[in-house]
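quick one, 276 residues, struct below
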Amino acid sequence: MGSSFNQPDAGNYYESGLNSLNSQDYMKAIGDFTNAIALNGKNGDAYYQRAYAKELLGNKMGFFSTDLCGDLVMAMVNGKKEASKKLNELCLGECYDLDGAFIDPESVYCADFSSKVLTDLPADMDRLAYVVKLNLFNNKVPTLSAKWAAMDQLISLDLSSNRLSLIPSVIGKLTHLEELNLNKNLIPTLPIEISHMKKLKKLTMRQNALTSLPNEFCDLEQLESLDLAMNTLVALPANIGNLKNLKHLTLVGNEIPAKEQQRIKAALPNTQIVFE
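---
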């Protein structure tokens, strides 16, 4: 019988990959991290370091391959927080339109489907497994269908100037989203599942039909910029002070009484707030 003793595991390959990186043997590092991933497909660090090795190899050889971007997406969805920043830096320079996106779908990281009269995600959207930035500006989307549950790798989403009158609970599946634009829709409120979007930093909801926000909204502790201008709000949640990282809050065009304005200012002393 063969023995399983001393056979490398994912951790051994990962450590070997780091040593190869330090020795500037980038090809060996890529192979080591590939072996680590083959044994543990949820190792976000291994995906991230393989992307780094590919970047360094490309710099050395004088080329850039978007192949490393797929590794960064996998690193991000498997818990490597730094990966989204690298994706923004390296992978989102080219956006593909509806015609071009499906020619080589695995190389598409940014998709611009604006002004295409869409009422939902395209039928073959599941083929765009690595899209992290999606622009659906100026379409006719009325709500988010169940298909959106598979879009959990998105970090930036523009749904402005659609016909959204309902944001269902499926939006809570977009747990990596950092930027969301819902301007110029018909949205009256948000579901409590919005609280699942823990990485959200920027939310714009100008010109909607907002009458209230759920208390769970204030669980978005990473939120830095919030634009709620031109709605019909008269108050914000009682726990609005939980938004400790909020830097900018725009409430122009809402009928918020002076007493409520004072409460909001007191709850958010470090936030720049514009009421009018």
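The chain has six helices and eight strands.
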